[in-house]
Structures are given as C-alpha cells and as structure tokens.
Amino acid sequence: MLAPVLKSVGCISLACSFIFSAVAQADVSVKIHDDRPGATINKNIYGQFAEHLGRGIYEGIWVGPDSKIPNTRGFRNDVIAALKELRVPLIRWPGGCFADEYHWRNGIGPREKRAVTVNTSWGGVTDNNAFGTHEFFELAEMLGAEVYINGNLGTGTPQEMAEWLEYMTSPSDSTLANLRRQNGRQEPWKVHYFAIGNETWGCGGNMTPEYYANLYKHYATFLKTPEDNRPELIASGGYEHLTEWTETLMKNVQPNWSLRMNGIGHHYYTLPLSDWEKKGRAIQFPEKEWLMTFTRTLKIEDYIKANTEIMDKYDPEKKVGFYVDEWGTWYDTEEGDNPGFLHQQNTIRDALVAALNLNIFHKYADRVRMTNIAQMVNVLQAMILTDGEKMLLTPTYHVFKMYIPFQQATYLPLDIKGNREYKLGDHSAPQVSASAAKTTDGKVVLALTNIHPTSKIDITLDGNWKRADGQILTAKNMDSHNTFDKKNEVAPKAFSAQKKGKQFTVTVPAKSVVVVELK
Fold it and tell me: What b-and-e string marks burial along 293-329, b requiring 16 or more CB atoms within 10 Å of the CB?
C-alpha cells in the first residue's frame, strides 16, 4: 500500500531516500508484539470535519458551478482531487456550533430560492445555503466517504430532526421522501452516523449532563429510520478532562438499548498555552511553545483512559464507542484575519501533533472507533489551504496520507525501552512516539515520531526485521510550512533502512515522522 504513496511524491529511487545503517548502540529500542494482535484500527479514526465556518465550505470545497475556479457541479476540482488521494473515510457536517442553529429545510430545493441566513456562531456572515443536504451527500459520494450528520438539538425540535432523517432515508411514498425526489435524489441516502446535538455543555445549550441525558432520550425516541438504514446514534459528551458526561450517559441512557446510543462524542483541542484568550501563535513561536504543544496534546491519552474506564464499568462488551469527534491544534488568530474564521497556518509542528494523536487513537482502537480532525479545509488544523484559485497541501495532510496503511489494519502492541525525555524548563515529553499494525494485506507497518527540534535519535528494532521502506516528513525549522509560493517546503521523501550487523537501527532525524513497511 505504500508504493503508490511513494510514487505520488515522485520519490521512488534510492537517490532521494534516507538510508541509515546499523550502529553499535542505539538510544531507544522498539519491540513489536506481532504475535499479540489487538483491535482493528477503524478507518474512521481518520475522519474529517467540515463545518460552515470561515472559508471551510465556501471557497474551500464549494465555489458554485458559475465560478471561474475550475469545478465540477460547483465543487472545486483541485480540492476534490487532493481529498480523493487522502482516501477520506468519513465527513462530519454541518457542525460544530453551527449545527445547533442549522435548519435543514433552508438548504434544499432550487439554490436561487434558498433562504439567506446569518452564521451567528462564526463571524456573523451570511450563508446563502447553496451547500446543503444534497450537496453534502454528493461530496461524500465523490470521495467515497461515510457520512456523519450532526442534528440540531439547540434550536430545533424532535419533529425537525425526525423529519430530516425521513427526508434522507425513507424509500416510501411519503411527502418528505417525494420532496427529496423532487429535489433530484430518487433513492434514499445511507446515513452512517447521526448525532443528537453538539457541545451541549457550551454552544449547544449550556446544559448539565443530567438535563442533556433526558433530552437525548426524548429525541432518540422519535429518530426512526428503515431497518436497513439505521445510523449509529451519537450522544454529545464532555471535553478535555471531564468524565461526568460519560458517567451520566452510560448510567442513564446506555442501559436502554432501544434508544441506540452507539457512541459518545468527546472534544479536545491542543492549545500551546492552555488559555483561550492567549492560545499561542501558529508560526514564529519559541521552543517553549513547541514543547508545550506536545505536552498538551499528549494529555488526550489520560482523558481517553479516564472515560473509557467508566465505559468499561457499564459496558464491558464495548458496544458503545468513544468518539473524539473534534480534535486538533488551535492558535491565536493572525493579525488581519477575521477572528470568526479560525484560519491558521499549518507547520511541521502540526504534523507531529497529528502523528502523536493518531498513535494514541490506535492504542485505544477497541473503543476509539471514530475521530474527526478539525477541520478539513481552511479552518484550524486543516488538510488543505486555499486562496482564491490557489491551493496547497499542509504538513498535516501529508501525515494523514502517510498513515493510510493503518486504516482497517490490526493494531500491534509495542514496547519502547530507553525512551528519552525531551525537557525544557519545567516541561517535558517523551522524545519518541510509535505505533505498529498489520495491514489488511498482511504487511507490518511502523510509525515513528521524534519530537525533539534539534536532536536525531537512533532506534533499534527488536525482532527478525531486515529492511524498512516508506516515507519521512521533516523540516528545517520548527515553524516550517508550505506557502502558495513554496508549496513543497514541507513534503514527504522516501525513507529506507536496512539491517547491517547484529542490530537493526534506524536513525530518525529531529522533528520528523517516519512511516515504513517492515520486511
């Protein structure tokens, strides 16, 4: 599965490879337990989030059929092509905070007749609703992605939510099913996931867990779909360190299986300074903020463990998933940008953050069966940035593409011995992060990340491995990033290592992500 990826970056010969031979003694050793396979790494761990926010939908994905930007039925060609290469497995839409003010009927029918509404959540801009239910499903079908729709609990009603599901899924001769047909879609769509509200502790209504649990039961009672088209129902859970939402939902909702609470959504954003008023800069940041970003993002493992331990108490069979349906970096708005658009630059630091999180998600794949990075285009830790007709791929995009072999692979536990602590002042984090898996075609893949900004590290691979081939993503500076003038400033290159002597040692450069197939 790695060969097409290598070809796509034009780097398949040894001339552009990093080749490292064995040395007498390595700093760190990694042992992969390929005889103790774990859970399947659900492809939807690599899910994407597309909210009506800033230039995420409009310009980022949708430009309209009359745009001068090359497009197919309104979808910009360059972005769609790049997302196809990424093999996006799942898209979450329409929010986010936007979801709890979104009324689906505004986004159906002839575009010229759709209502113009105000996006009060993000920037106070108007939305002509040109991108609605039909456009979203067309996007998903173009990408071959599953769909995750977030229902409006905040300003909607059980009737509105139930009718939206009927409109999307009913094969009957009902008025709503015929309205869908009238608007151009004959057959029902497949809805894979449907959430009842979003961030109900905050922008979704400022509720208590107990109040929301009752509302969930109320709304879920009326969300009826055909037997062969039942989406997984997702409850709005907590954020960061909070566990009381999980406890309340598992205790009060989970026992009633008729309500089908299939998953609990949890949110965690990485803020270098852990302060919503001063989060830290996306570029031109000091080394202290470089390290603090990693110490903050690694906290997600503690939060996953705390919540899944509660879930194990009520649901030892692991029927309910723990979905991190919003995650990623969040920095201060750059001067001159609309603060409501959440546009930020994406550097090699963000690529490492992505790798660290994906490695953790793999480890807990028995519960963490879906996550959605925020967001797909032009917003927060995006895969793609655009500026009018121009487009670039971010370092985070490249990590997601390098990790494609992990989708639907079988997690392989591993031990890291001798891992160094990267320290600066009062802050520290393990220098090396790793994850291994057996792919669907029986190959063993290994991801290695070195977060140190200046020091390489030698890693011995214990076992009978003789060769490793794949890709590396690294950069010159801590804030190296791609621009529209230099689109490949941070881009993958081929990487090879082979055993020489008794030990198989791989040298991983500073601030780099390596993904290889082991042989």
Answer: bbbbbbebbebbeebbebbeeebeeeebbbbbbbbbb
Q: Which fold has domain 43-408?
A: TIM Barrel (3.20.20)
User: Alpha-carbon distance 367 to 373, whole Å?
Assistant: 17
Residues in the chain: 519
Structure tokens at 480: 């190296």
Beta strand segments in 23-113, E: 28-32, 47-49, 71-72, 75-76, 90-93
Catalytic residue among 326, 334, 389, 421: 326
Provide CATH code, domain 2-37+412-518: 2.60.40.1180
Residue 342 and residue 333 in contact, taking contact as beta carbons nearer than 8 Å: yes
> Residue 512 in contact with residue 35, Cβ under 8 Å?
no
In the set 146, 199, 232, 289, the catalytic residue is: 199
Q: At what angle do helices 287-314 and 348-363 cross, to 10 degrees?
A: 20
Q: What is the rounded distance in angstroms from the CA atom of residue 278 to the CA atom of residue 286?
A: 15
Query: Which residues are within 8 A (CB) of 223 and not within 5 positions of it... i.e. 6 or more apart?
Result: 161, 162, 165, 194, 196, 233
**Do residues 396 and 404 lie in contact, with contact meaning Cβ atoms separated by under 8 Å?**
no
Dihedral (Cα; 188, 109, 81, 435), 10-degree rounding: -50
- Mapped onto helix, strand or coil, the DSSP state of residue 352 is helix
Q: Is 205 left (phi over 0), alpha (psi -120 to 50) or beta?
A: left
> Using an 8 Å Cβ cutoff, are 508 and 470 in contact?
no
Percent of the chain predicted with pLDDT > 70: 95
88-132 pLDDT tens trace: 999 999 999 999 999 999 999 999 999 999 999 999 999 999 999
Q: Token match 């769509």: residue?
A: 189
112: annotated active-site residue: no
Model confidence pLDDT, tens digit, residues 123-176 = 999 999 999 999 999 999 999 999 999 999 999 999 999 999 999 999 999 999
What is the per-residue pLDDT across 467-512, written as a single tens digit (0 to 9) for each? 999 999 999 999 999 999 999 999 999 999 998 888 899 999 999 9
Report d(CA 72, CA 139) in Å as an integer.
Answer: 11
Give domain limits for the chain: 2-37+412-518, 43-408
Question: Each residue of 35-93: pLDDT tens digit?
Answer: 999 999 999 999 999 999 999 999 999 999 999 999 999 999 999 999 999 999 999 99
